[in-house]
């Protein structure tokens, strides 16, 4: 980093951080279960991931940064893959996690594959000074509940009664959400409605459609033995109930927005579509994930005009180029109040995702804010306060963590 604004550089590099949205690391025996190029791209497995992703500016930068971390000057991605394979898994995790200065992890452990391949959330405490907490992915919770209800109907041979099925599903879902909301290990909820039916969530779900959708889901499940909530009416009910319960219990709800793999419909991934649902639950704190990229300005607008809306700027590290990251952070800061922005890595599977997500974010914040200082648009103390809020203070307050920043020296 430049020697201009040295105190800002020190804070940007060393201030403790709360990673407010991430996922568990793999267990050692499964360290090679996923294609490593997923570290630098959301592309689905195949040529788009193994060939295209390695020819991006994001990959070139990650290669150089990981090479420096591993003590080599290589500029070749395949060298990085070979080097990391030669390192014991726990040692690799420590090498990557120590420089991040992450004090606390908030983990969504409902990501597909976590139960089979990943470590439990408390396992991650060995890398942080404060205990890891959980974020409950509500669609996965709802799928488990609905599967249980349907298994019971199939096992007992009960007649399929649409209204009764709706009633049982809603009752069990409300109970599970309420139980999670009062669990001290759970600090918030997360919805992936963006992946399932889009972000145009209806504050008044069509109960007639819900009846039909649940019956059709039951019939499909009876044949295929697989269940995935992708019908809009069902997803709308899940989200509305989550927002209601979360608001009553004072816990925030994260929403995947924007940047994601090809499972989303991009035109339905803009947080601007969420205005009706935001208005319907003014007492529920809503966090828009991933800067809403590429709809960052829309996301920032919502945080500026709705008191209950917050904006996370994770996942763009390391998926975007350095210029793209700077541009996105600048768009976040165009309108978004700085007491409502939160940082995350969206780290998952590989410890390198936490490392890159941390060092790139810290560097980007420093560079963007230094420019503003040098143009005399803010003081250095203003910029330092923004970094402290983004890395630690805003998440500490939003999730009611009651932590004090910890310095390890």
Description:
This protein is α/β, with parallel strands linked by helices. The protein has one domain: TIM Barrel. 50% of the residues lie in helices and 9% in strands. The chain contains 17 helices and eight strands. It has helices at residues 6-14, 47-52, 57-69, 77-85, 89-97, 114-117, 138-156, 162-181, 193-196, 207-224, 232-249, 275-280, 296-305, 316-319, 322-335, 351-374, 380-398, and strands at residues 17-22, 102-108, 133-137, 186-191, 253-255, 286-288, 309-312, 341-342. An eight-stranded parallel β-sheet has the order 1-2-3-4-5-6-7-8. β2 (102-108), α6 (114-117) and β3 (133-137) form a beta-alpha-beta unit. The chain is globular, with a radius of gyration of 22 Å. The two termini are 20 Å apart.
Q: What's the pLDDT, averaged over the residues? A: 94
User: Structural class of the helices, strands and pairings?
Assistant: alpha/beta
Q: Report strand %.
A: 5-15%
CATH architecture: Alpha-Beta Barrel
CATH topology: TIM Barrel
Measure the end-to-end span.
20 Å
Number of strands: 8
Report the radius of gyration as a whole number of Å: 22 Å
Outline, from the CA principal axes? globular
Fraction of residues in helix: 40-55%
Q: What order do the helices and strands follow?
A: HEHHHHEHEHHEHHHEHEHEHHEHH
Strand order of the largest sheet: 1-2-3-4-5-6-7-8
Largest β sheet strand count, sense and barrel closure = 8 strands, parallel
What's the level 1 CATH class?
Alpha Beta
CATH superfamily: Metal-dependent hydrolases
Distinct helical segment count: 17
Unreliable segments of 5+ consecutive residues: none
User: How many separate domains make up the residues?
Assistant: 1
């Amino acid at each position: 980093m430049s020697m201009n604004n040295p105190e800002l550089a020190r804070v940007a590099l060393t201030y403790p951080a709360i990673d407010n949205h991430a996922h568990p690391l793999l267990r050692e025996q499964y360290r090679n279960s996923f294609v490593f190029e997923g570290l630098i791209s959301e592309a689905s497995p195949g040529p788009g991931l193994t060939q295209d992703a390695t020819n991006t500016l994001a990959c070139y930068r990650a290669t150089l940064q990981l090479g420096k971390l591993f003590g080599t000057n290589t500029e070749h991605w395949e060298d990085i893959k070979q080097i990391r394979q030669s390192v014991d898994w726990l040692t690799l995790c420590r090498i990557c996690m120590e420089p991040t200065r992450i004090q606390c992890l908030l983990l969504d452990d409902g990501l597909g594959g976590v139960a089979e391949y990943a470590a439990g959330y408390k396992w991650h405490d060995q890398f942080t000074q404060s205990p890891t907490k959980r974020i409950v992915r509500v669609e996965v919770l709802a799928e488990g509940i609905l599967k249980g209800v349907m298994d019971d109907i199939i096992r007992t041979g009960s007649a399929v009664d649409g209204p009764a099925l709706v009633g049982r599903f809603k009752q069990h879902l409300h109970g599970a959400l309420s139980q999670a909301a009062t669990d001290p290990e759970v600090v918030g909820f997360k919805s992936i409605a963006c992946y399932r039916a889009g972000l145009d969530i209806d504050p008044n779900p069509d109960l007639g459609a819900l009846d039909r959708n649940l019956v059709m889901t039951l019939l499909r499940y009876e044949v295929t033995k697989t269940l995935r909530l992708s019908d809009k009416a069902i997803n709308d009910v899940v989200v509305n109930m989550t927002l209601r319960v979360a608001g009553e219990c004072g816990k925030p709800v994260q929403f995947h927005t924007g940047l994601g793999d090809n499972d989303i419909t991009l035109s339905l991934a803009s947080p601007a579509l969420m205005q009706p649902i935001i208005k319907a639950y003014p007492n529920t704190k809503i966090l828009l994930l991933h800067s809403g990229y590429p709809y960052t300005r829309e996301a920032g607008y919502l945080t500026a005009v709705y008191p209950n809306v917050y904006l996370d700027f994770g996942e763009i590290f390391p998926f975007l180029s350095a210029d793209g990251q700077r541009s996105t952070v600048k768009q976040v800061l165009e309108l978004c109040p700085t007491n409502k922005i939160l940082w995350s890595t969206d780290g998952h599977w590989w410890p390198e995702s936490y490392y890159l997500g941390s060092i790139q974010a810290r560097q980007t914040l420093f560079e963007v804010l230094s420019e503003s200082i040098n143009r005399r648009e803010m003081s250095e103390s203003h910029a330092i306060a923004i970094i402290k809020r983004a890395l630690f203070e805003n998440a500490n307050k939003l999730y009611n963590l009651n932590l004090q920043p910890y310095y390890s020296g």
